[in-house]
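The material for today's practical consists of a large collection of protein records. Read left to right, the backbone structure tokens trace the chain's path through space. An example says more than a description, so a record of this kind follows:
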Amino acid sequence: MARGRSADYQLNRETIVRTATRLFAQQGYPGTSMSDLARECGISKPLLYHYVSDKYELLREITESHVTRLESLVGEVESLGLAPAPRLRELIRRFVHEYAQARHDHGVLTQDVKFLEAKDRNRVLRKERAVVAAFAATIAQARPELAKAALDKPLTMLLFGMINWMFTWLSPEGRLRHDDMAPIVADLFLGGLGAVNPPPVTSAASVKAPV
């Protein structure tokens, strides 16, 4: 009879996935070996293979789980029944907050999705396109004249340019937090520089300024 999994199997496996996510984000997928992962987790390679079959399995799981979560955020916001402009603000708020909680996941999705096999990469990219389409549809509803000029998708990509790369320069230990930046991104996108309101100076005054 095959031996059953221990009660803490899923917890141990999740620890391995989280560690792999951090290593892939910091070193890149090609630059991270299973030996690196085993050493970082404090376990042997044979034990590591008890939890995951190979490095590729981890990459596929990390990227697809992250983009699936982003799809879920879109669904949650759409279920609120908000008008287009408030809906866009809420989408921005939730995405910025999610990226703050999943900085490494987003880094892996951004830099390492190209290492997925075609069928897996296409599945992830379809989910990404669905997220982009939801933002574009909201922008089109907020400003129909821009949609008629075929600007809804380009404006969406400009917006994601602000959101997606925040993890590369906004320090978690800095004065500004992601939750401070979310309304600033929305203000800037919807109203231009003159519409930006600074966050309260007490938000995190005791920590270092962002890089």
About this structure: Residues 203-211 have pLDDT under 50 and may be disordered.
